[in-house]
Amino acid sequence: MTSLTVLSEPITARDADWWRQATVYQIYPRSFADASGDGIGDLAGIVSRIPYLRELGVDAVWLSPFYPSALADGGYDVDDYRDVDPRIGTLEEFDEMVAALHGAGIRLVVDIVPNHSSDRHEWFRAALAAPKGSPERERYIFRDGKGENGELPPADWEAAFGGLAWEPVGDGQWYLHTFAPEQPDFNWDSREVRDDFLETLRFWSDRGVDGFRVDVANLLVKDLSEPLPSAAELRAFDEAAGEHPLASRDEVHEIYAEWRELFDRYDPPRTAVAEAWVPTARQRARFASPSSLGQAFSFDLLEADFDAAQFRDIIDDNLAESRASGASSTWVFSNHDVTRHATRYGLPPRAGSTTKQGTEWVAQGGPEEQLDRELGERRARAATMLQLALPGSAYLYQGEELGLHEVADIAPDERQDPAFFRGLNATKDGLGRDGCRVPLPWASDGPSFGFGPARPHLPQPEWFGASSVEAQAGDPSSTLSLYREALALRRELQSDETLEWLEEISAGDVLAFSRPNGWVSVTNFGSAPVDLPDGEVLLSSSPLEGGRLPGAATAWIRS
Ligand code: BGC
């Protein structure tokens, strides 16, 4: 085992490729650390935890929305794209945070939400106050309702969180909202909308932001020619062929070509990563191309079972895809939208399922009473060590370094996720996304486990104390210590983006590959211990058993 080295230096270098193999840590700001004492995490809280991020060893932070918002969708309902939510901080504090992160050698990627604003955005208020056919309404998607007085929706489309995707405004017109009614969709055919977003990207880039995470990047452009299709007709369109009127249309790349042109005017160029749940690898690669956003999230591993064959195929496909697109690969197991991976991996298959665990529980919480916590954590640690050995960017979600499980026991009246309230819960039998957004436990006890002086905005469970940073920091066998050691080693060992499978070991439940510098990673997806290849064992996600790698574990070896 190696000792912990913190290698980060203040950011001065203009390294244009910094993102290619970066470890990016997602902060969901309202749940990270609360310095002001209002129960909501804030920018000052983030700054106070920069030593923690530095010791963890991440290269960049991805900050989920911090803009003014009524929080109808956890901040993805933005009132003003060029300001900070006063509950979270000020623009001045934002600048201080950028300087402090950069001073600690950590880059900053911010979330940008271009598909929709909030219904409190000044443009949407103006649209409501203006008459039908006005330029104010042109910035959003308004249509006449059906029926004598427009009392029926223009179409019966369903919103992503459940319920109807059209909302009446009282004068016979309705507006489109792909997500909650508080999130009206912009009209991206409008030059004004396009120019305003370019202005926003400039605003944050000028403030020193290093990159952008682009929310639902594949949904912006829509073909709304009349007659609008019905919901049933919509389902029949082939999204994979780019034929769906509302999603994954090729024309969306015209927007990102303009963004890229702007990003490339900076030194180093600003980076961007697309969140685009598209049906084909070819479509994902277009977002990742250097003439578009430059990188795109792959959720393939996130949706897979803990299974050697599935992992191998996904890794091969993703590496081939990035070789073709010129981007680097992205690897993700958890984020603010899905059930934490420690929990997914500890749940049994759903009745009648053909997969072991994984996809079905990704957005649904899962049945708490069937959860094998210990197995889930073991597998999660193994999966993360495999992830961190892969070439490309590793995206980590706050709290996974503590091995946190999903919090299932949140009372309905304390929940916040619109997906829970708007029918998605009813149709999918799930708990929504609040369980992965519970404020982090920093201390072993105290009323908010060190999150801040006040009662946190989502309730924390009793077991958070034992998972806290304080409880884990001094324990060499903890998940936090494993992440710290793994990230330090990753920095030390990482070089080019090549990977070679070790075919003589990769069989059945075992996956082994080597990277340059003699770095070998072996994962045992099964339950029986297996032999390790010769070499110095650098780190192991679970203790070796008589020199052998136990089930649900990964070891790194220097050959
Ligand atoms: C974000 C979600 C959000 C949705 C609408 C997503 O993909 O990650 O948290 O609810 O976009 O903005």
Number of E-state strands: 16
* Spatial sequence of strands, sheet with the most strands: 9-8-7-3-2-1-11-10
Structural class: alpha/beta
Tell me the distance between the termini: 14 Å
Share of helix, binned: 25-40%
Structure, described:
- Helix 6 packs parallel to helix 8, helix 9 (281-288) crosses helix 11 and helix 13 (373-389) packs parallel to helix 18.
- The strands form 3 sheets. An 8-stranded parallel β-sheet has the order 9-8-7-3-2-1-11-10. The protein has a 5-stranded antiparallel β-sheet with strand order 12-13-14-16-15. The protein has a 3-stranded antiparallel β-sheet with strand order 4-6-5, with no helix packed on it.
- It is α/β, with parallel strands linked by helices and 559 residues long.
- The longest helix is centred in the middle third of the chain and has 18 residues, at 308-325.
- A hairpin with a 3-residue loop joins strand 13 and strand 14.
- Helices cover 28% and strands 12% of the residues.
- It binds beta-D-glucopyranose.
- Beta-D-glucopyranose binds next to loops.
Annotate the secondary structure layout:
Layout: E1 23-27, H1 43-48, H2 50-56, E2 60-63, H3 91-103, E3 107-112, H4 122-129, H5 135-138, E4 142-144, E5 166-168, E6 173-176, H6 191-206, E7 211-214, H7 231-236, H8 252-263, E8 271-274, H9 281-288, E9 294-296, H10 300-303, H11 308-325, E10 330-332, H12 341-344, H13 373-389, E11 393-397, H14 418-421, H15 424-428, H16 464-467, H17 469-473, H18 479-493, E12 500-501, E13 510-515, E14 519-524, E15 536-540, E16 553-558
Parallel strand pairs: 1-2, 1-11, 2-3, 3-7, 7-8, 8-9, 10-11
Antiparallel strand pairs: 4-6, 5-6, 12-13, 13-14, 14-16, 15-16
Helix pairs in contact: 6-8, 9-11, 13-18
Bound molecules: beta-D-glucopyranose.
Beta-D-glucopyranose binds at residues 73, 76, 113, 179, 215-216, 275, 336-337.
